[in-house]
Amino acid sequence: MATTIQDGSPSTHTTNGPTNRKAQMRVEIPKNREPSETDAIRTPKTPQNEGISWFESSHVGSQPVQVYELKLESDGGPNKNRAYTRLPPPASPYILRLSLDAGTPASKRGVLKTNFPLYGGAFERTKFVEKTLPSDFSKPVQIDLPISSAGVFVYWIEYDGKDGERVKGREGYFNIDPDLRVRKRTPILTPEQTVHAPGKGGLITEKTTHIPLDGLSIITLVSKWMGRLDEWTPYLKETSERGYNMIHYTPLQQRGQSMSPYSIADQLAFDRELFPTGWTGSRDDGTLQMLKTLKKARDEFGLMSLVDIVLNHTADNTVWLADHPEAGFSPLNMPHLTPALELDDAIIEFSGSLDANGLPTIIKSQDDVDLLASSLREYLNTRNLWQYYVLDVTGEKKAIGEALTSGKIPSWDGPDLCGKSDVEVAKLFRSEQKIDNLGALSSRFCASVKPGVAAAAMKSRHPDSSTDALVESWGKIVDIINVPLYEEWKEDTEVAFKNIVSRIKYTRLEENGPKLGPISTQSPLLEKYFTRIPHGEKTAKHDPRALSVANNGWIWGADPLANFAAHPSKAYLRREVIVWEDCVKLNYGNGPEDNPWLWKHMTEYVTLLAGMFDGFRIDNCHSTPLHVGCALLDAARVVNPDLYICAELFTGSEETDITFVSRLGITSLIREGYNAWDPKEMSRILYRFGVQKPIGSMDGACMTSPADIPPPTGKGPTRAGLVSPLQGSVPHAVFFDLTHDNESPLHKRSAEDALSTGALVAFSHCAVGSVKGFDDLYPRLLSLGSENRRYDVSENSGIGQVKRILNNLHTEMALEGFGEAHVHQENDYIVIHRVEPKSQRGYLVVVHTAFQKGSKDRGHIKPIQLRRTKAKFIYGASLDIHSYEDVNDPKLLKGLDSTLCLLPPVEGRNGADNDGPYQEIVVPDSFPPGSIMLFSTKLEELPPNIDQFCKEDVDGAFSSLDLTDLNVVLYRCEEEEKDATDGQIGAYDVPGLGKLVYCGLQGWMNPLKHVMQYNDLGHPLCGHLRDGMWAMDYIHQRLEKQVGVLPNLAAPAKWLKERFELIRQHAPSFLRPKYFAIVVSEAYKAARRAAIEQSSDFVASGHSFIHDLALSSVQMYGLVKSASLDPGKVVPSLAAGLPHFTGGWARTWGRDVFISLRGLFLTTGNYPAAKQHILAFSSTLKHGLIPNLLDSVRSPRYNSRDSPWWMLQNIQDYTLMAPDGLSILGESVKRRFPKDDTWVPWDDPVAYSYSSTVAEVIQEILQRHASGISFREYNAGPNLDMQMTDQGFQIDIHVDWKTGMIHGGSAHNCGTWMDKMGESVKAGTKGKPGTPRDGAPVEITGLLKSTLRWLAQLSHAGKFPFEGVEATIDGKTKLVTYQEWSDLIQASFEFNYYVPADPAEDASYNVNPAVVNRRGIYKDTYGAGPGRE
Known about the structure:
Blueprint: E1 3-4, E2 10-11, H1 17-24, H2 47-56, E3 65-71, E4 84-87, E5 94-100, E6 111-114, E7 129-132, E8 141-147, E9 151-160, E10 166-168, E11 172-176, E12 180-185, E13 204-211, E14 217-221, H3 233-241, E15 246-249, E16 253-255, E17 264-270, H4 283-301, E18 304-309, E19 313-315, H5 338-352, H6 366-381, H7 393-406, H8 422-431, H9 451-461, H10 467-508, E20 530-532, E21 548-554, E22 578-585, H11 596-610, E23 615-618, H12 626-639, E24 644-647, H13 654-664, E25 668-672, H14 679-690, H15 699-703, E26 705-709, E27 719-726, E28 733-736, H16 745-748, H17 753-762, E29 767-771, H18 772-775, E30 790-791, H19 800-815, E31 820-826, E32 829-836, E33 841-848, E34 864-867, E35 869-881, E36 892-893, E37 898-902, E38 909-913, E39 916-921, E40 932-939, H20 946-949, H21 954-958, H22 963-970, H23 974-980, E41 989-990, E42 994-995, H24 1001-1014, H25 1020-1027, H26 1030-1040, H27 1050-1066, H28 1072-1093, H29 1097-1100, H30 1104-1116, E43 1117-1118, E44 1133-1134, H31 1150-1162, H32 1167-1179, H33 1203-1217, E45 1228-1230, E46 1251-1253, H34 1254-1267, ...
Parallel strand pairs: 3-5, 3-27, 4-11, 14-15, 14-29, 15-18, 18-23, 23-24, 24-25, 25-28, 28-29, 30-36
Antiparallel strand pairs: 1-2, 5-8, 6-7, 6-9, 9-10, 9-11, 12-13, 16-17, 19-22, 20-21, 21-22, 26-27, 31-32, 32-33, 33-40, 34-39, 35-37, 35-40, 38-39, 41-42, 43-44, 45-46, 47-48, 48-49, 50-55, 51-52, 53-54
Helix pairs in contact: 6-10, 7-9, 7-10, 8-10, 9-10, 11-12, 17-19, 22-28, 24-28, 26-27, 27-28, 31-32, 31-33, 32-33, 33-35, 35-36
């Protein structure tokens, strides 16, 4: 339909405002570019194509690309909190990044599947594209989706699971908000922060601006109370002047006979009462007039349009129902509704018989209710509705008799029935599903058993009984089958009567009910559950059962995902539906194929409106079948991609809410302030829906990081970007003070509360809404159907002046980024403070709520203290209601007679304390309930660049630190810190949290990460920071105190101190947590960078998990005073574990050092530290062993058989990994002990009196083992080890030259890493190793084999000065080369270590079957003592 609107430009339903708005936001794309590999599969240009083209173009621009990163779990799905994510309107293209950690299961041949048009083209919900994930397990997976248009999308990852089967990960949903644009307005406040007079501020300009969702101010207007379209201008003007920027219209389509806007008779035509009397225009003419009106509202008054769409029902007098009764739920397409229809018919008939039976037709008392209820029960009993539930006993007996007589009896295919009782047989028929139509309720006695089945059963049970006996037996069983069916009927009947009586009382007797008039056939006792489509020429072609269609309604506490009109629901029969008798429930079926005409018709309806309006409110959304809502809203978004959609859900479950929001793409959920029952609950919902971030939030400042962003399609330049993590979303709120279908403030709280609640809601950081009746102080809820008066327009009506200020300010705050807020509730007062975080400008509203009627008291609230902040009074008002009676104007809808009383300005009271200056706002003595005050605020003395200063020059301050310095800056547990500082400094103790794990920055980052991620300003750490500067002083002072030992710490200490001093001097206490987090997180990241930059290329180029692992080398390697690698001076050393093995003799262990050295030092590139530890332990070689406990090389202990072999493996690794690594073999080390292994103190002249090269140390280890080692530990006894028995101090090691394997140990000691010694006398374990592992432990054999192979290669190449070892074998001394020794081990390993899977092969191996518990494995040790192998 091509039409022409007033300005002469061509227009259709699909080319009006929304499409033009999208055109305004297009990005200019350079024309000449290389074809993209995705061009071939693209459809003609769509907004998504334009976004892809932008990323592929050579245009870079000055602004960084925004990247929103959504972290997925290891199985490829989002966690519960991130399953639904909202993204902002794409006013310019940005990226959604889905990321997976490296090596996660989902990266195994992973494929992203999504209906997001990743390669361009139009969105189709059921059209999925794929993107193969990178297959490099060592790198994280990042999938960048270019975002340039609004919509609702789903994604998941498929990957290879066990045995190669494909696994589908959990689904995630992301909704992209629409880009709403409307005429910009002038500020409502003057530069001096006073309110512009009417006609001066809040004026519509010629410029267009984007309106954030949080800037929407919506008002509900009922069109029938506005009159004809040509009479709307005064209402549009008033709405605009009150600061609203969107009108919510109740349905504008042709109304049905009830005249309710929600009972639509023609979905494709606008209501004829919108046009002049006698209007003869067509549907298209009406559409054109509506388009002109909406354009006027937008262009002249800056008002966007939001309209109700009604998808669940149609008016009871809808004309097309005569042609398409299949569009409703009837006994024809839903046979289970048959008894519900009969019950409804009976109630109508009963209603028409009251006069004749002497029953009351007007209910005046509870006695009347009881009389009618008992009479109705008697009347319904005559209907015998129980017959719909049960089997017909007489009919069943007759049918089985005929079957038995015929002689054609099938064989029984069920369980054996012989010996079973009648009750057991009856239960079996139900459990085996032998009863047809059980519970179908489609007709009387519809449930039955096939005669042949019954005959076969009875014959198998009593094969010799007569036909008559079998018939009677079957009759008894049917009676038993019917027993629970009768009970079911009774229960349903009782529920139905309870609901009937309750409904009669509400609709005809209770004060808060509608008090309906006389009862008759036309106005039955209860609302009609079914609409009877009139019989006539059109309907003659239909089955009569199709002409009674169920009316729509709602059910308390029902499952919103279940269709209460479909089988097996009995909601209509049990009278559970609160029915709307003017609305026929629509039956879409499972898809368009079930009801093609209805789907086509309703699609035309929603696309018509989508082309005209900016948004939809989905009426009765929680009862809208999801598949219906998805399909129709998808069709609407094709017409208007930036369609705003809101809905009110009554699911009672946040999880179910998110199901609707994420699937339907609902932009905002309607919330209501008048759902609160007291000020405390009101403050809770204000915080829940109206505060998105608390004041002092830190996620934006701390969690956003710069990065280079490659083009998402692989084509185009790399751009600068900012990456912000996503934590998932809660549904966006459009927060109404009152919705149009709820009772008035006078009814629910007090009339005065309209001002206080209206102010609180308008001040919320979300979309907000109201109704004209709320602003004008209507005393009661008006009937949409029966009320026919017009709205009144008055400049001074109700609270309109206040709404003018607050609505305009609401939108301005959203546009200017007032994104942080604080809600304070004290008694009946609520205070909201909203702040723009960069400038720290704010607005504050003080509200005295009026939940109770009558009181004029000021109430109590402490002075409102604003730290380092000045407040300027803008506006204050209270509401004086002159009369609470309805004005009852015959033509106009008028509110209560009232006056808005302006309050005199309130000046702030200045003060100061130990925490700095403050200003207090004191509520005046005259401030009755319902009063409000509005202030502007400005944080003083805060440097405008403080955020930047807290970050700048950080790398310069930390770049000069070496790894030892970084151990201090980042880590150090309390024991290490006390050791290094002579007990002066320990771990910081945060009240309510406890001591930090580390003294360094990592200790603070552990709690801070959570605080920053979730803006958890209630965390104990934040409370402590608000209380004082102690934590900041600790951080820099602990570094300053250690500059004498580690001078490089001076630079980071100075950097930290300068920033903390600035915070001390200028930041109020409530902002300390934010700036503390900025400083500490920036310092932490800089320190990490400094560590990574000193690491190997492997680490430096690795992903974050590699970095985390590498930093453990910094964590474990540091300087303490009580432990060293040099007995004469303190040097850094490796801790065996934190926090228990931190200092003294317990810090550095030979075994632990060399098990971890490759990972901690060699892989990370800290070759100097690796070399220092190798040389230090080489110097201690004694008895052919290195010490397990180094004890600063002063009193080392030699009781570890595996330590020398771990060291030799690391020397081998060092030669292969370190630059010029082989040269270490020639390094000379002074030997701690003399050649005869005599124990001498470290400072004895004999100590360090000779030297050996590392190669000679290696050879000595091998030779001493080849010759055999036997010694008793020095200083053996309780002073050395109080748990060990005397025998355990004896160390014996030898080589078995038949196998080449090294044996050692005994039942009394444990010389390998499994070194737990028993300690309990009571348990009998003292002095008994848990795992002695004597004999040849498998890891020593492996390490020996590795060393021999390596030395054989070096010796053969002339790079090692020895060829082998001297060994006495069979009484002869000979040279055994490294290769010979290696080959001997190779030849004997399988025989001695393998436990065959098949016991039949035991003879081929050295196996004792008596001790085998598991097969197909290698032994842990070989040659242990009896019972220990």
